[in-house]
Specification:
The complex is a heterodimer of chains A (432) and B (105).
Chain A (H helix, E strand, L loop, with lengths): L7 H4 L10 E5 L3 H12 L7 E6 L3 E3 L18 E3 L8 E5 L2 E5 L4 E4 L4 E3 L2 E4 L3 E3 L16 E2 L4 H13 L3 E7 L9 H15 L6 E6 L9 H7 L2 H4 L2 E4 L4 E5 L4 E4 L4 E3 L2 E5 L2 E3 L1 H4 L26 E3 L12 H19 L12 E8 L2 E7 L8 E3 L5 E3 L4 H16 L26
Parallel strand pairs in A: 1-2, 1-9, 2-5, 9-20, 11-18, 12-13, 12-18, 13-14
Antiparallel strand pairs in A: 3-4, 6-7, 7-8, 10-19, 15-16, 16-17, 21-22, 23-24
Chain B lengths: L1 E5 L2 E5 L16 H7 L7 H17 L5 H7 L4 H7 L4 H8 L10
Antiparallel strand pairs in B: 1-2
Classes of the chains: A alpha/beta (432), B mainly alpha (105).
């Protein structure tokens, strides 16, 4: 029945004495959608009221944005209504979030209304904070300095690349964490291929600029892939902490006064959690990411709050696959919490990614909190090759958009893919 | 992987000289590691950063980036580069006995 019709509310305005549990999910993108759908399908949640909150109805398939600068897909083909991805029986509130009052178990929305909850799941992701880097949104922003992490940015960059007929392109990660940590590297590989196809690769200088001490920092991946940048003639500048972007003169300037000149810069700005988290005392860390137990995904501030996806502070990558694998943990733990049971599920940090290497090839990496990316096959011995370029992996990545809309968002497990990182099929040498 | 000796004690370090097991670190080792990293005397500001790095590692499982250090360590980014000229996130991590900041691949 609808919440407002329940007779309990006449006597208990703040809750349901009948025991109807209210679950509020903040954020209607990857994590929010799949966890709301999982909870809706759970038999024990049949009587629960589930509401998803998002400020708009435009669900963007973010992985597609990496390809937009090179011609396709068009950003609007990456967008579908959020409502349409949610199972029947899930409420959708289109509103911004003002703040969460942890003590009162209440979310205040920006339309002056409020939602009370018995359990809260935060899935509001990570946002870009380009204003935190001096000069980034100043002169040159949108003209020779771009980001492909938004639909508008990716589209502007596409136009700029069609007009680009030679010079220096700098691809820079300002700081970590970022969504999809390999995307800037993939961008370099795809740019190499793009300019090669246009016949002007020898007129373009590509430089990957990172605050880390290498393009690859994990030992096994580093050995397997170390030669890739040299092979594709991508220059590497490491340990570069960007303090300022000078769009007028075309330079990246580090805090220790090193400079990387550019004619066109592709920048991944610093990231932070959603804005309302800073207005919700106790909830987030200094960057606005929700502080949770890395295994149970339960908030460290209040037991009836959970989080998944890019919004958390767990030391896993900010990637869609992580939200997918976390979904099972959060669903099981929310149900257990509402039933007064101890939390049974632990997330192991599992992530996997297709890494585009250009020329119709990609490589696949699979890892978790404990284990770095290893060679072998995924999910088992007969599967996609790991840490090795193949056309099959590239096709896998292209096909993935359909898998995303049709299967992943429903919160169902994908066939043969369990939430925990598999070890079968991997080279034993790297396994602890 | 290899070992290094600080304060007469043997500790495990990786190829770059970073501690593999932060629990092997003691405060007494910090000045010795700092000297080896080209940093002279450790002032109160240095120690604020070192303590912050260990606290972050304990809470998050990874050392903080320069941005987080600048926001929350009590020391500005400009000062951080004066204290640890060759890159605070990395140098301070080494002196604080925590693994270096790393990416996912």
């Amino acid at each position: 029945m609808e919440r407002d019709e329940c007779p309990c509310l006449a006597t208990y305005p703040r809750g349901h004495a009948c025991g109807m549990k209210r679950i509020v999910v903040l954020g209607g993108a990857t994590g929010g959608t799949l966890v709301a759908n999982r909870l809706r399908r759970a038999p024990s949640m049949r009587e629960a009221e589930i509401t998803v909150v998002d400020r708009d109805d435009a669900h963007v398939y973010q992985p597609g944005l990496l390809f937009t600068p090179f011609g396709s897909p068009e950003p609007r083909s990456l967008v579908r209504p959020r409502r349409a991805q949610l199972h029947a029986g899930i409420g959708f509130r289109e509103a911004g979030i003002d703040r969460v009052d942890l003590d009162a178990d209440r979310v205040y929305l920006d339309d002056s209304s409020a939602l009370d909850y018995d359990a809260l799941v935060i899935a509001t992701g990570a946002r870009l904070l380009p204003e935190e880097t001096e000069g980034l949104t100043g002169e040159g922003w949108g003209e020779r300095v771009f980001t492909f992490y938004t639909p508008e940015g990716a589209e502007s960059l596409r136009k700029a690349l069609t007009r680009f007929d030679g010079g220096r392109i700098a691809v820079n990660v300002v700081d970590l964490p970022i969504k999809c940590p390999v995307a800037p590297l993939e961008f370099c590989f795809l740019a190499d291929w793009y300019f090669h196809r246009r016949g002007i690769r020898d007129r373009v200088e590509l430089t990957y600029v990172t605050p880390l001490d290498g393009a690859f920092t994990k030992p096994v991946a580093s050995r397997a892939l170390g030669g890739l940048l040299a092979q594709k003639d991508v220059q590497l500048v490491t340990e570069f902490n960007t303090g300022e972007v000078d769009g007028k003169r075309g330079r990246l300037i580090s805090y220790d006064q090193r400079e990387v000149p550019f004619d066109l810069a592709v920048v991944v700005p610093p990231h932070g959690g959603a804005a309302y988290i800073e207005r919700s005392p106790g909830l987030g860390d200094e960057l606005g990411f929700v502080r949770v137990d890395a295994g149970t995904l339960q908030s460290l501030a209040k037991p009836n709050v959970f989080a998944l996806g890019d919004a958390t502070d767990v030391p896993a990558s900010k990637a869609g696959s992580v939200a997918h694998f976390e979904g099972e943990t959060v669903e099981r733990n929310v149900r257990a919490f509402l039933a007064g049971r101890t939390l049974p599920a632990r997330f192991d940090g599992h992530a996997n990614c297709f890494v585009e290497t250009g020329y119709g090839r990609a490589l696949l990496i699979d890892f978790n909190y404990e284990t770095e990316p290893l060679p072998g096959h995924y999910p088992a011995a007969l599967g996609l090759p790991l840490l090795k370029q193949s056309r099959l992996n590239h096709l896998g990545k292209l096909a993935f958009q359909q898998v995303y809309w049709r299967a992943l968002l429903s919160g169902r497990d994908l066939p043969g893919i369990a939430a925990d990182m598999p070890t079968r099929g991997k080279s034993a040498a790297g396994l602890g | 992987m290899s070992t290094a000796t600080y304060c007469g004690q043997s500790v495990e370090v990786n190829d770059g000289g970073f501690f593999i097991d932060p629990s092997q670190w003691t405060e007494q080792m910090a000045p010795e590691i700092a000297r080896a990293a080209g940093i002279g005397e450790l002032t109160e500001a240095h120690w604020m950063v070192i303590k912050f790095m260990r606290a972050e590692y304990a809470a998050k499982g990874t050392g903080p980036t320069v941005r987080v250090l600048g926001k929350s360590s009590g020391v500005s980014v400009k000062e951080l580069y004066e204290l640890f000229p060759k890159g605070p996130a990395k140098t301070a991590a080494k002196i604080a006995g925590i693994p270096k900041p790393r990416g996912c691949i």
